[in-house]
UniProtKB/TrEMBL annotation, chain A:
Residues 1-21 form the signal peptide. It comes from Sedimentibacter acidaminivorans. Gene3D superfamilies: Dipeptide-binding Protein, Domain 1, Dipeptide-binding Protein, Domain 3, Periplasmic binding protein-like II. The keyword Transmembrane does not apply. Residues 79-425 form the Solute-binding protein family domain. InterPro entries: Peptide/Ni-bd, SBP_5, SBP_5_dom. Keywords: Signal, Transport. This is Peptide/nickel transport system substrate-binding protein. It comes from the Bacteria. Belongs to the bacterial solute-binding protein 5 family.
TrEMBL record, chain B:
This is ABC-type dipeptide/oligopeptide/nickel transport system permease subunit. It comes from Sedimentibacter acidaminivorans. InterPro entries: BP-dependent_transpt_permease, MetI-like, MetI-like_sf. Its main location: membrane. It is a multi-pass membrane protein.
Amino acid sequence: MKKFLILLMAFIMLLSLSACSNGEQPTNPSEISNEKTELTMGYQTDPEGLDPQRTAAASTFVVTNNIYDTLIGVTQGWEITPRLAEKWDISEDGMEVTFKIREDVFFQNGRQLKSSDVEFSFNRLKDEESPKARDYANIKKIEIIDDYNIKFVTEKLDVELLKNFAYPWAAIVPEEEVANLKTKPVGTGAFELKEWVPQQHIILERNENYYGIKPKLETVKLELIPDATSLMAGLQVGDLDIIPLTGDQVKTLKDNTDYSILAQPMNAVQIMSLNTDNKILSNEKVRQAMSMAINKDEIIEASSFGYGDKIGSHLPTTSPDYYDTNDVMEYNPERAKELLKEAGYENGFDIKLTLPKNYQIHVDAGQVIADQLSKIGIRVNIELVEWGTWVSEVYSGKKFEMTVVGHTGRLDSYAFLSRYKSDSEDYISLKTGEVDELLNKALQELDGDKRKDIYKQIQIVLASKLPAIYVQTPYTMLGMQNNVKGMNIFPIDIYDFKDVYFE
Amino acid sequence: MSKKKNSVYSNYSLLIGIILVLFILFICILSFIHIPYAPNEMNISERFIKPNSDREHLLGTDNFGRDILSRIMVGSRTVLLVSISSVIIGALIGITLGAISAQFKKVVGSSIMRIIDGLMAFPGILLALMLVTVVGRGIAGSIIAISIFMIPTFSRLVNSMMLDTESLLYIKAAKSYGSTNMQIFIKHFVPAMLPKLVTQFSSAVGTAVMIETSLSFLGLGIQPPNSSWGLMLSEARQFFLQYSYLAVAPGIAIIITVLGFNLIGDGLNDFLLKRRS
């Protein structure tokens, strides 16, 4: 036994000695580069292919925006900035826009980008297979002036036209590569795809031929970790540099100086959509009663730990056109009961609430809503469905009674609100046609202040007619190691790794 | 073995098993008489109260401010209802099928037993998952899925026991006196098989509890806001690092129930076998 102990002691001493010598090795600090250039980020939903013009999935655009470029970009403050286009001219009548494209842009396959690629990409965006085709139907002609100048002509006046060129799906793609873009994306962006193992990770590599200021990061590794608790563990042991956070995690990390937190209201709204084709829900008083019975502060506390701004209408608080309509249908359960009685449902009714089970924030909010509605006698039956089922049954099939979901905002309010036109065929629309005229007017109004006023009126109409019950503007929340700098949140749903670096 | 040593009191597994199961049964019965709080009622201002820290919520409250004790109590109804009824249904069908195939050995018997063998090839939870997607989620779906899962074990047991006993003299004697098959089955086979069936029944309930909680953990059992232990565990998962007590109560409840029924099964096995010998 004694011998064993001595041996053990000797072994431990040896180990510690060797550890010491290891520690002394880097005597000259200038020899080692202390600049870290490999970023690892956790993410929760795998992209649906990396072809920006063949999907509507936000998880795709989050990644592709780093691989492809758009003609123009948008800043954190909602301002338009040059990207592939150096400058642009809008004609006096507002019907034409001409872009001057940079002459030093090369695709990642080595070919130079010319205006013919822009034409090709927009035609591809407008064709049958593109899910965003409807948004670009107004562009009736694309005219190539020369290799670096291109003109777009619209059919009707759209004062917000320019913003349509900043969305990640308006990316410029090279014609010769389109067959494989889903798995082998080729763009002009600051990063190129090195490897994508579906359901595992995506590795992006710095594009050495990028026309702009080259990113400081050499590689960005996106690791798929759907579970929020595992993401948090990854951040805490240092495997992950950036992770998306939930509200309760923000509270835990807030006072810890090892991490920095980015928490900002998103350009998005969480709403409870109501199917106005349903006999009960077609009654405006019922919808108003429901809205008054719902305490949004409680929902925000329960679903996002307070990280959310309550809203009364379909525009998020981040939008420049936002108008506060929270007082139109204020929380008032007593009045709600009266309204329900006036509508003839004194004893309440049974109703189904479909919730997308992959989105915890909507499931949680839905459960709180169900509980709050039960207090005025409305019996809510919750049904959890997979996201795919939600899209096909609820969104496309319009087979639902109520559902809680998020809508990602646009840069222009018209595009975001146009679903409320009576002929929009959307799963929620205001079939009574009360905002049709206002929306058309907004599209044609050149004066910014007057346009804002029209959007204000639309928001007020929506807040009282309630084709949906508007709950909150959720927050984007990111947790980062405190040496990560330069990560920003944009009004469109993208991550931009170009300016990210380690300090 | 002396008779004194073979009393219930010296059979510790049986004793502990009975105590655990009685405890769960007590909670279940109590839930019909009195629950401290309405199990589905939310109270957002009182969420995440640690167990008994305010002397009102013995097991604390969850992320919606619902009382965990009340939810555990109401959840016990679901668990016991689903597991016991599905084992009863499964056992009845299984015993019948086993008896039929033992009686008509040739075409009918062997084809039934081959189908049963096929069913047994599937791992339990996988089979249940598959069945739930076919018959639909919820309580009824879980019961159907678990009872189908239970059929093979019972029919195999009955089948083999009947084939064993068949050649014994007293059965042959009964046959020669002209008793019908049904009479022989009820008067002779059933009493001979009863101890083993009871043992099997008890451990099957333990398995059924596991499957039910797994199904509801995966979101295929009872739907929220109603409570079930598996669902509670699954809801606790997202807060596991900050509020780990949320997972403790349903976890312990599941352990107690499964352990209880399994110990009873084990203990009964020892007890009945010893008594017979």
